[in-house]
Amino acid sequence: MKISLIRTFLWLCVIVQALFFFFAWTTFEPAIGSMSIEITAEGVSTATKLAMPLGQRALGAVLACVPLLVMGYGLWRLDRLLLNFRRQDLFSAQSIGHLRAFAGATLASTLLSIAEPALRGIGFWLLAGGERHLAVGVRSEQIILLLVCGLFYLVTRLMQEGSRLAAENEAFI
Q1: Containing H/E element for 31?
Q2: What are the residue ranges of helices labelled H in 53-139?
Q3: Rounded Cα distance, 104 and 112, in Å
Q4: How far is the CA of 99 from the CAs of 6, 83, 90, 153, 156, in angstroms?
Q5: How far apart are CA 127 and CA 55, in angstroms?
Q6: pLDDT tens digits for range 124-138
Q7: What percent of the chain has pLDDT over 90?
């Protein structure tokens, strides 16, 4: 697969994530013809979102923005890695650093997205009072993503060792 196609999908992913975030925390509803589309944040129904005061919705958006921005940073580093690959710069320290930063940002974003609904619940409770119910959930996709991030860290370590061995071999020749 061509690197430019992968980069196109990567930036399309960023745009789609930004659009979903926008629609999840505003009262705008996208529509296709006469069909409206409901997009909400995890754990927030459309009715709940529409009933929220602006301050509560803003707090939810700020808290939800953190994992999104961290993932955006990770995707930007992945884009830098793909540009290095296009230049055939495969095992340089810079490429290894980009892959490690992508894996770290993905790991951090996943952990933040697990914690964000609970933090949002605490924030809403502090802001408006009411019920003190706190729910934390982890989806199997998030667990798999955490494992993949760990695998990427292992791959970067292997890349570092391979780069070190290649440099050592060149020194002997």
Answers
A1: strand 31-32
A2: 54-86, 93-128
A3: 12
A4: 15, 12, 11, 8, 7
A5: 9
A6: 888 877 667 777 889
A7: 58
Tell me which residue of 83, 102, 95, 114 sits closest to 152, measured CA to CA.
102
Q: Which residue has the tokens 């409901």?
A: 38
Is 103 in contact with 152 (CB distance < 8 Å)? yes
Q: Please give the span between the terminal C-alpha atoms of the chain, in angstroms, as a whole number.
A: 35
The tens digit of pLDDT for each residue in 62-74 reads 999 999 999 999 9
Domain range annotation of the chain: 53-172
Q: Is 45 left (phi over 0), alpha (psi -120 to 50) or beta?
A: beta
Q: Does the pTM of the predicted model rise above 0.70?
A: yes
Please report, as a single letter, which amino acid is at residue 119.
Answer: L
Using CA of residue 102, residue 104, residue 105, residue 109, what is the dihedral sign? positive
